[in-house]
Task: structure prediction
Amino acid sequence: MDEDRISRLLAEIRDLQRQQLQAQERVLENQQEAIRVQQTGVGRARKLLAAIGIVIAIVLVIVLLLLRYILKYYR
Result:
């Protein structure tokens, strides 16, 4: 009877450890997916910031050229 009980306890411990291992594997997969999503978001943000920077630079150049033109011809 004692050996049967010990066998059941050991089997239960083994099963629980397998479940824990599976849960840890799922956690690692989820973390890897989260990292991929974050990297994608950062890449998109960098592209967007670069595009906004270019647009701002173009607008600034246009404003400076117009200001130069206005100051030159309307003094």
Summary: The mean pLDDT is 95.
